[in-house]
Structures are given as C-alpha cells and as structure tokens.
Amino acid sequence: MSLNILTYLAIAIILCLLVSKLMKIVKLPNVTGYLIVGLIFGPYVLKLFPAGIIEELSIIPQVALGFIAFSIGSEFKISYLKKVGKAPIVIAILESLFAVLVVDFVLIITGHDVPFSLCLGAIAAATAPAATLMVVKQYRAKGPVTETLLPVVALDDATALMCFSISVAIAKAIASGGSDSILMTIVKPIAEIVLSILLGGFMGFILRLLTKWFTGRGNRISAAIAITFACIGLGDILGLSSLLICMGMGAVYANTSREADKVFELTDRITPPIFMLFFFLSGADLDISILPKVGLIGAIYIVFRVVGKLLGAGLGAKLSKAPKVVQKYLGLTLTPQAGVAIGLATTAMSVVPEYGQKIRTVILCGTVIYELTGPVITKLALKKAGEIQEENKAAKA
Questions:
Q1: Is the separation of the CB atoms in 249 and 231 below 8 Å?
Q2: Which helix (H) or strand (E) element contains residue 302?
Q3: Which of 50, 93, 253, 330 has its Cβ near the most Cβ atoms within 10 Å?
Q4: CA neighbor of 371 nearest in space, from 129, 137, 150
Q5: What is the per-residue pLDDT across 325-335, written as a single tens digit (0 to 9) for each?
Q6: pLDDT-based confidence at residue 17 (cuts at 50, 70, 90)
Q7: Of the candidates 38, 128, 72, which has an alpha carbon nearest to the alpha carbon of residue 267?
Q8: What does pTM read for this prediction?
Q9: Phi and psi dihedrals of 387, rounded to 5?
C-alpha cells in the first residue's frame, strides 16, 4: 500500500512529537531529536520516507525559513536597541565576520576550492538563538553577559544573511571564470540586500494596515501568513533574498504596529508543526554515505567556526568597552547553530551544485554536534560568569 503526502506529513509530525518527549528525558534540544528521527526514517537509513516524497515537500523549508526570518525581524525594536547601546551591534558584526573569515582561511590554505570554501564558510556566521535563549530562560540567567547576549543573537542571523549574500556573489564570480566584473561582484550583493530590506519594509507597512483593518485573531493570523507567503514568493520572482525580505517585514511591522506583539504571539502558535517538519525533512535529506568524505572538512568547520566566534565576540566586546566578563564569556554562548544555517546550506546547493550535498551534510552534522554541545557550553559559560542561579532554585521556579 502506497501512502500519500498527507499521510507522510502526519507520520513526520507524530514522530517529532514522540521524540520531543525523549529529548526532555535526556535534556537535549528538541531540534536535535527532529534531525535525528528524520535521518533514521529518511531515504538513506530506514527509507520509510522515499527521496521523491522529500522532494515533493520542498516547499516546507521555504515557508519555515520565512517565518524564522519574520520572527528575527521582530527583535529589531528601535526602543530596545537604544536601551542596550552599540555593544551588541559591534559584537554581532565582528563575531559573524570572524567566524566566516577564519573558516574561509583555514579551508583555503588546506587546499579546498575557493568557491566551495566561501559558500561553506559563509554559513559559519549563523547562530541558533532558540537553543541559547532556552538556557537563559530555564536558569533565569541575569547579568551583563545575558543582557548583551539577547540582542546579539537577535542581530546575529541578520549579519549572517548579509555575509552569506556577499560570499555567494564572490563564489559565483569565481566559479564563472571571472565573467562578472569585480565592481559587479561587490555591487550586486549589496544591491540585493538593500532592495530586499526595502521591499520587506514595504510589506511590513502593508501587514500593519491589514492587521489594523482586520481586528479578529483569525483574520490577523491569516494576514500575517499571506504577507509572509508573498515575501517568499516575491523573493523568488525578483531574485532577491526572501529571508531578508521577511526579516525586514518583521522589523518594520514590530516598530510601527501596536498590534505587533499580539500578531507575533499568534504566529508563534501556528509555526511549531512547520518547524518540526522543516527539521525532520532536513534530517531526512542527510546522505550519511558521504560522511567519510567530509571528515576533515567537517572537523575544520566545527572547530574553527567556534574559534572565529570567540575571537570576534572578544574583540567586539573590547572595542565597545563591554564589561570584562562579557569579553571573556560571551563568545562561548554563541556555539549553537540550527535553522538559518540549514536554510543557507540549502541555498548553497544551487550555487555550487558540485559541492552542494557535501556542504549540506557538513552543516547538518555540525548542527547535531552544536545542538548537543551548545546548550551545555552556554550554561557553563553563564555559570562561570556568575549569572545563573543555583540549579535547585532554578528548577523550582
């Protein structure tokens, strides 16, 4: 008996729900469980989900990333950024940039192709805010490191998207044999970023008008979904970054609408199954048969991404005259990596198709490792910084 798409979706969500219970028992992030269960039941292990089905469900990652970017944009409230000052902005830019440059440099000097190195290195900038914030909330961390960390992780994926856009443009120029001029190589990604954010801002104003006009919760969530879909679709049609468009839309909407908090709360309620499916499908698409071929590359990426984060965060904290404790421990809290990185890896597959599957495998393997170790490292760093309550008190709270 052959199953249809809806049956596969139902099975995937149920598997994710079941594995989330296991993750609570072993005290690991749910996203790790979603990736692992997707890998196990995907086309490369138990083969319950054939490769053709994974391909048919490819729209789900696009939708999931659109909502992730929309949520990231909501963190860019001007009032909040004024309150925390320049330090988070400086740190976010430098820790992202150093992660990219360090990974790029090590990959290139170890003999890997430059376009491949640039595309893989560009993804090193991304961090998973969910895993980090989970630790902060669970242990009710308070202090200068925590106060700096929260806006940094909100800004981090924005800087990651920009680093990725520029790196991909350079990789394309090199791969095309220099058919594009150096000027165009620099101007095109910058123009794409600016146009994407402007279009996103325009869509944010449209969402503001719609949610002001429609007052019912059902209508407002429908409007938010429609505009998010429109941002993703327009990005594809115009050749712009749908992630930056959705992020720009979320930022403008958060700063201009009185209904923003209510609408973001509504979208948070409908997105869990979408994110479950996103990570499940990402795990299912992991071809473990090429793991032996990416051993050295994977090790370079996993180790030197963290080195770059530590160097960049430390330098950024020092330049912005952040407290010593921030300079020492903030970089360690930026280890986790998940959603946006996986999305960027998917995009990279179309940029350098000859390396696409290898890049995706490295990122997915790195994600599992980072999600396993990242929350633990974050907890230890915040504890060393003296910003975590006694664990028994946190557990009772």
A1: yes
A2: helix 295-319
A3: 330
A4: 129
A5: 888 888 888 88
A6: very high
A7: 72
A8: 0.77
A9: -110, 5
Rounded distance between C-alpha atoms, residue 223 and residue 345, angstroms = 29
User: At residue 227, what is the residue type?
Assistant: I
Residue 243's closest CA among 126, 88, 144? 126
Give the whole-angstrom CA distance, residue 170 versus residue 275.
31
- 166-195 burial code (b ≥16 CB/10 A, e <16): bbbbbbbbbbeeeeeeeeebeebbeebbeb
CA atoms within 13 A on the CB side of 280: 27
Band (109; pLDDT cuts 50, 70, 90): very high
**Count of CB atoms situated within 10 Å of the CB of 215:** 9
- Cβ neighbours of residue 116 under 8 Å, at least 6 residues apart? 107, 171, 352, 355, 358, 359
- The pLDDT tens digits of the residues spanning 243-270 come to 889 989 999 999 999 889 899 989 888 8
Q: What is the distance in angstroms between the CA of the first residue and the CA of the last residue of the chain?
A: 50
Q: Is 114 exposed, middle or buried (0-12, 13-18, 19+ CB in 10 A)?
A: middle
Q: Which residue has the tokens 């503001």?
A: 208
391 pLDDT exceeds 60? Answer: no
Model pLDDT, residue 395: 43
Q: Which amino acid is at 41?
A: F
pLDDT tens, residue by residue, 210-228:
999 998 899 999 999 999 9
